[in-house]
Amino acid sequence: VQLQASGGGLVQPGGSLRLSCAASGNMPSSSTMGWYRQAPGKQRELVARVTSGGTETYGDTVRGRFTVSRDARKNTIDLQMHSLKAEDTSVYYCNVRQPRWSSTKYDYWGQGTQVTVSS
Questions:
Q1: How buried is residue 105: exposed, middle or buried, by Cβ count under 10 Å (0-12/13-18/19+)?
Q2: How many Å apart are CA 111 and CA 9, to the nearest integer?
Q3: CA distances in angstroms from 117 to 63, 75, 76, 86, listed in the order given
Q4: Residue 22: which pLDDT band, with cuts at 50, 70 and 90?
Q5: What is the DSSP letter of 51?
Q6: What is the Cα–Cα distance from 58 to 55, expressed in whole angstroms?
């Protein structure tokens, strides 16, 4: 599975940005797709993920500001970000992994896209 992310960039505080990620290759339709982020000197953290059944999970710091959406036909996942803050500055990574119930483990990562929130 290959993941291609796009949409990062520089945005002012309070602004909006949309990230997109397309999965290619043999991605099982039951996969969970998500976005994570990692700032310098910090651990990678969950931003948002969505299961094949449509269950969404958000990180505490983005809930209410970010919205994740998934297109099962296109194998894409988007992240719409609103009310961006300086602390949202990070490298954002697209992820595909096995569903929680699966005994077959896999975990794929995209190359990362930089989001910088600054005036």
A1: exposed
A2: 15
A3: 18, 28, 24, 5
A4: very high
A5: -
A6: 10
Instruction: Quote the CA–CA distance of 119 and 115 in Å, as a whole number.
Output: 13
Residue pLDDT, tens place only, 85-108: 999 999 999 999 999 888 889 999
List pLDDT tens digits, range 38-86. Answer: 999 999 999 999 999 999 999 999 999 999 999 999 999 999 999 999 9
CA angle 86, 42, 27 (to 5 degrees): 95
Tokens of 91: 């490298």
Under the phi-then-psi rule, with left for phi > 0, alpha for psi from -120 to 50, and beta for the rest, what region is 72? alpha
Q: Kindly state the tokens that stand for 20.
A: 């997109």
What pLDDT does 117 receive?
98
